[in-house]
Structures
1.
Amino acid sequence: MKILCFDIGGTLIKSAIYDELVGLTNFEEHKYQLIGRDGVLKVIDDCALACEFDGIGISTAGLVDSERGCIMLCSESIPNYTGTKLKDILEEKYNKPVFVANDVNSAALGEAHFGAGKAYKDFICLTYGTGVGGAIVINKEIYAGNNGAAAEIGHIITHLNGERCTCGLKGCYNHYASTTNLVNMCREIDINIANGRDVFAEFDKGNKKIKEVIDAWIDEIIYGLVTVVHIFDPAVLILGGGIMSQAYIIDEINKRLKNAVLNSYKDVVVLSAKLGNTAGLMGAAYNVIVHMKRDMSI
Ligand SMILES: [Zn+2]
């Protein structure tokens, strides 16, 4: 079975073919040639016309109704995307099954079945980048919640009357623990720092001021994780986002978290996500395959 899969973000769209026998092939990154919704549909059409496939799996930014395959809400990072009935549009056009899911949930499913979560039935996945995303995996499936919007862990409040978050609330975890915040704080020391890679290049050179900022930022990460651990009592937390490939961060989180939680939770293990920028694609492919197999067995 060959699945054409996409991971749709605000600046890039990734595509690949997932073949059950050989894994992920034909990985590509596409820049938007048209703005917003039209740009998304153009990339999908260009890829779909260039290959053979049995189904389409989509991992996408925004709040997604996976039952209907519809984008319920997406920020202006992808203009006119809110309300797009991706599943209906693509199934009508290509006459193949289509499954659409939120990007953080797709990445968590990818990790659950092919990556760092392979050995675990249940875990919580958090991703750190522009903001902080979350997903709850129970029995290898995503816990969706009443509105399909569960696990907005980025918007738990870790600072009373703190700074305003993009969601409108004040003091959200998202604002303090995101990679964006780390980079912004480091830029106050060195204006040339543009991303997480630059931050850790300075850290590797032994820049003490940058190390202090990283250490304070790791405490911000811990504040949110403490709450998550006390609610879910998970065996493992899987942390994704490019910055989490830094061994120093994961080691420090493991040390500090054990000292910050009640005794009952001290065995919790923090792992770095394994699939990197292909997790969403893998999860998207998995979603379609599972739904196709379920439909075939009915
Ligand atoms: Zn918020």
2.
Amino acid sequence: MDYPIKGFIETSFSDWPGKVAAVLFLPSCNFRCLYCHNHDLVFLPEKYPDFPLGEIVGNLRKRSGWIDGICITGGEPTLHSWLPALIRFLKSAAGLSPPGVSLGIKLDTNGTRPEVLRNLMGEGLLDYVAMDLKGPLEAQRYASITGVPLGEEVMAQIQASIQILLQGPGDHEFRTTLVPTFIGEEEVYALARRVRGAKRYTLQNFDPRDPLEEGLKSVVPFDEQALRQMQERVNEIIKEKLAS
Ligand code: SF4
């Protein structure tokens, strides 16, 4: 079966911490984040041809042993009912990794489909999950960042996904893209307290070059040194629970 895979990066050293990964981009998203850089892929996926899965598999086979795993990103991959089948296929396809070595799968998600996350993890299909925390966990704030009206039920789904990752056995990270007009320093620390015990919570600086919302192009990102200091504090906060 072929899948509407809209992008393929053969080798990435930055999408999966400590791993060499190939990256698959899946179309569509249920959010419209104002800072989104993948907006064509998200909103106009029909602009892009599908990457035939056979070609991707052929490419990965040639590089078996060099690639640790595959990062599945988007868009929002969990929207697709065929995602589990795609991952099962990639994990079981012959020759993608050396004998006895399982090809790792990393999933990027916005956390709005906890049941998908739970099922994939329950089936042992995920080796790493990176979940975005868009901002303070309040419906109004989330809606203003994600560009879609959303209510408490969506926030409950996001909270459920956080719990699944915090309580699950797998490796994971939480991530926040810091747009200075959307989130303040103390709010970042409050989010870090919300995910105490997390394996990682990564702060990503906002890139004003090509956001969905044109008006964000004039927003000045956080100073790199300030960002480093915030990351250090966040690293301390998420460990607090483990130490107590
Ligand atoms: S969750 Fe937001 S940033 Fe991620 S793909 Fe969807 S719209 Fe873009």
